Amino acid sequence: MSSPSRQRVIALYKQLSYLGREYPAGADYFHKKLKSAFLKNKDLSDPVEIQKRIDLGDYVCKEIEAMYHINKYRAMKKRYYEETQVENIQSKLENTNWADGTVKR
């Protein structure tokens, strides 16, 4: 493995390890899966295949970050809105015609 891809793989591992601290199934579970995935691919030597794995790791990072943002949003919504208000807001959003900005009643 060339030095730039080695550095990128190490940086990806560190980033995923950091993101795994708040994983819903538990940090230990996440780190075991992370380590096994990286060890499984440690013998790759084809630069194209290595780049594919790095791209997949970047995608996983983005998905985990999106999951965390959704969880934060849901928790904040529960704190500030009562359940009936949330249902009213959701029904208005579902009945909104986004093309002309009108709300069906």
From TrEMBL:
Signal peptide per UniProt: none
Domain Complex 1 LYR protein: 7-58
Pfam family, one: Complex1_LYR
GO CC annotation: mitochondrion
GO biological process: negative regulation of oxidative phosphorylation; respiratory electron transport chain
Coiled-coil spans in chain: none
InterPro entries: Complex1_LYR_dom, Complex1_LYR_ETFRF1_LYRM5, ETFRF1
Family: Belongs to the complex I LYR family.
Record-given protein name: LYR motif-containing protein 5
Organismal lineage: Eukaryota, Fungi, Fungi incertae sedis, Mucoromycota, Mortierellomycotina
